[in-house]
Amino acid sequence: MNGDEKTSDSTKNLYEQLNIQFALQVSGLGVWELDPKTYQVRWDDRCRELFGLVKDNVLPYQQVIQHIHPEDAERVNQALQQVLTGESDGIYDQTYRTIGADDGQLRWVRFYGRAYFAQTGDLYRFAGVAQDVTQQVLDQQQEAATRQQAQRQQRIYEAITASTPDLIYVFDRSYRFTYANRALLEMWGKSWEDSIGKSLLEIGYEPWHAQMHEREIDQVVATKQSIRGEVSFIHATLGKRIYDYVFAPVLNEQGEVEAIAGTTRDITDIRQAQDRLQEREAFLQSIIDLAEVGIYTIDLSTNQLIKSPRVAGWYGLPEVTDVATSVSVIEVSDQERVFQTYTEALASNASGYFNLEYGVVNALNGQRRVLRTSGQIVYNREGQPVRVNGSVHDITSQRSIQLTLEQQVQQRTEELAAANEELAVTNEELEEANALLVRSNDNLQQFAYVASHDLQEPLRKIQQFGDLLKGRQNSLSRDELGYIERMQSAASRMAILIRDILDFSRIATQRGSDKLVSLNEVVEQVLTTLELVIAETNAEINVDLLPSVLGDASQLTQLFQNLLGNALKFHRPSVAPLIHIRSYTVEGGALPASVKPTRVSKVYYQIDVVDNGVGFDEKYLDRIFQVFQRLHGKTQFAGTGIGLAICERVVANHGGAITASSQPGQGATFTVYLPA
């Protein structure tokens, strides 16, 4: 027998020694059993440690349940009862928290097993295995939190493709490459100049391969939907590889496909690892799969490192190598730290346990991974270290998400700083515009005052001269007296119009004060002012309890004086006016679609002024709140056509809105909405 054959036999013997007990120990699993008659729990040292017990490998179930977290105990009990009664087909699989009986430590554990029933239906055995999944749960929680935070971020503005191992490229609609990243050029073994603008056939794709991709590109253009596939291709240096690819449409502003973006990932190692995993021993492989870890053991006497297929795939090495070979694929920057941690764990005064993270570069394909490993030194009876058992987790995705998140945070911070600068400039421009607006309003008020004064002075002279002429009525004919009265009537209407214009100008340019105003007091004051008209028309006015609002009492008085004045003025002939003022509260989301208050509020007061007057056709609703708009002739009803425009301006000044509903001859309802 030569040296190679001896090594092969030694390896086979070593594999034979990796029995179930070794597999359980390496995987960190414990064994337990519940006696269905006595409810005594028997377990090994590993299970006992999961409950933080220093001793007692046999305990009553009621004592065991006391060390389960109170929030989980009821669920665990219910699951146990379902297993014991056969409701769950005898399958038991529960993950929950324990509170260490002696050390007080909180742990996440997973207990899974099976109940066995005799043909009579009697339970005769209930047993299984247990595992500490604290780190896995914490990793899952961290990963979930990281994923949620990543989902809240907006998409990355520009993909960084230069250093990614994925192949990234862009086709035009003529199947020609307009972009290819470095990884794709390396796969082809070509330069940028030799690739860009070339078709698939010109690059070197076989005809069947090129035709398949051209059909897929046509499908993406036609459907504007992404397409995914898998194909083999000869890598320029690595040989035949298996690739997973996605073609996605790039749409222009008109929504048409202007290009096709593609990403391709080398999944050869994944496929090879899947093939190897299917060849493993069923029982041991199922335990490893449940644990979702890679495992390894180091024989300190031979310095051999035996890896599970998963770990071997990560390293790109055979399953059995020496320690030095495995260390060689660890990133150089991490090697010294890994060696120091391993040496400290071997020290005589140490616990023998270690846990650390490091990066590895796959020896076959150069792929980088971030791994977390934990291990435990195993000692013989003499206290000498003989073996190291450990597990490995691939945390590449978590670290990648973390790095991406940090980059996004930095990018968003820079964008926020730029936005703040723009906001400062905008605020300065707004302050300047506000100052101009204030000066404009001041000028408008001065103009309105001067204009009204200059216009009213001639009108007063007309009235005075008219009165003087009427004093000589004995010398005037009837027609001449009629001319004088018509002149004075026109002058009176002109004076009223000037007054209304001045009122509208003041309300349009002045916000007024913000004080708590009782609308009942406002209406009461208006009714006092209008008491002569109310008496002349024999009107009946009913006023409900109205709210108090923040606003200007003077402007609110003008609002209700115009609304009530119109209700009294536009009454039907020979029909006494009947007016009702009522109030409601309305949620902001329940406002009619046509109502647009000038200030957003969760709740609004709705005040209705309802009358039984002549009404109007609602097709004129958009006109009645405009200045100088009248729906009736001057001979029917007096007025300037400014009153409702004043109402609309007052309501807008108070953050609200006004509308109306009516039918000719059926009265009208004017509705005011004010923020509550």
Automatic annotation (TrEMBL):
Q: Which PROSITE patterns match?
A: HIS_KIN, PAC, PAS
Q: What is its EC number?
A: 2.7.13.3
Keyword field contains Transferase: yes
User: What range(s) does the PAC domain occupy?
Assistant: 92-145, 227-279, 354-407
Query: In what residue span(s) does the Histidine kinase domain sit?
Result: 450-676
Q: Which InterPro entries match?
A: HATPase_C_sf (IPR036890), HATPase_dom (IPR003594), His_kinase_dom (IPR005467), HisK_dim/P_dom (IPR003661), HisK_dim/P_sf (IPR036097), PAC (IPR001610), PAS (IPR000014), PAS-assoc_C (IPR000700)
Report domain PAS positions: 16-87, 152-224
Cited Gene3D superfamilies:
1.10.287.130, 2.10.70.100, Histidine kinase-like ATPase, C-terminal domain, PAS domain
Specify the domain of life of the species encoding this protein. Answer: Bacteria
- Which SUPFAM superfamilies would you find in this protein's record? ATPase domain of HSP90 chaperone/DNA topoisomerase II/histidine kinase, Homodimeric domain of signal transducing histidine kinase, PYP-like sensor domain (PAS domain)
Sorted alphabetically, the keyword list is: Coiled coil, Kinase, Phosphoprotein, Transferase
Catalytic activity from the UniProt record: ATP + protein L-histidine = ADP + protein N-phospho-L-histidine
Q: Which residues form a coiled coil?
A: 402-443
- MF terms in GO: phosphorelay sensor kinase activity
Question: Which Pfam families would you find in this protein's record?
Answer: HATPase_c (PF02518), HisKA (PF00512), PAS_3 (PF08447), PAS_4 (PF08448)
Q: Does the keyword Cytoplasm apply?
A: no
SMART domains per UniProt: HATPase_c, HisKA, PAC, PAS
| Descriptive protein name | histidine kinase
